[in-house]
From TrEMBL:
It catalyses: D-alanyl-D-alanine + H2O = 2 D-alanine. SUPFAM superfamilies: Hedgehog/DD-peptidase (SSF55166). The active site is at E159. It comes from the Bacteria. Pfam families: Peptidase_M15. Its cofactor is Zn(2+). Its EC number is 3.4.13.22. The gene is ddpX. Transmembrane segments: none annotated. Zn(2+) binds at H93, D100, H162. This is D-alanyl-D-alanine dipeptidase. Belongs to the peptidase M15D family. It is an enzyme of class 3 (hydrolase). InterPro entries: A_A_dipeptidase, Zn_M74/Hedgehog-like.
Length: 185
């Protein structure tokens, strides 16, 4: 059901932040750094890579499939429905239907300024914010949104880094680590 996204099959960089302590919980959420998506989302990711490359950008993947056990860990740490999906409702991440990512300059490999770090749980992370975000960061967010929506993804208005399949909650089940067979937890 889910397929693992790996290099060199996908020309992207990886930083599975939830497998480290560099996330908003301060501790690793995943036992193993791995990146999985539904085949439909993986196909759109390939399209996004192809759109970004001739423009001089690469994608850096931060999170994909998130087992429901991990969603509960995030929710129990910060039960804020503005940024964290209530696990009882389900997250598109827990369906393999969402990807968190940022842009890199393809020539230098440097991350582009997006105005806030990944998982910055403040309104400054919302799409369309102009106060408190530099013009350069606003431009970079729009470029990322253009790439991802042109590839066929929907966006989440509260997180510049989050893209998902349309109507994921109506189309896909929430998966545990055991059901998905990812051995991430």
């Amino acid at each position: 059901m889910l397929q693992e996204i790996t290099a060199p099959d996908y020309d992207v960089d990886f930083d599975v932040v939830y497998a480290t302590d560099r996330n908003f919980t301060g501790t690793p959420v995943y036992q193993r750094a791995a990146f999985y998506l539904l085949p439909e989302a993986a196909a759109l990711l390939r399209r996004a890579i192809a759109i970004a490359a001739p423009l001089g950008y690469r994608l850096k993947l931060l999170d994909g499939f998130r087992p429901s056990e991990a969603q509960w860990k995030l929710w129990n740490h910060t039960p804020d429905p503005e940024f964290i999906a209530d696990p009882r409702r389900g997250s598109p991440h827990s369906m393999g239907a969402a990807v968190d990512l940022t842009l890199l300059d393809a020539a230098s490999g440097a991350e582009l300024d997006m105005g806030t770090p990944f998982d910055d749980l403040r309104p400054l992370s919302h799409h369309g914010v102009t106060d408190g975000i530099s013009a350069e960061a606003q431009k970079n967010r729009v470029i990322l949104m253009g790439i991802m929506t042109s590839a066929g993804f929907d966006f989440f208005r509260n997180e510049w880094w989050h893209y998902q399949l349309f109507n994921a909650r109506a189309r896909y089940p929430v998966l545990t680590d055991a059901a998905a067979g990812t051995r991430m937890m």
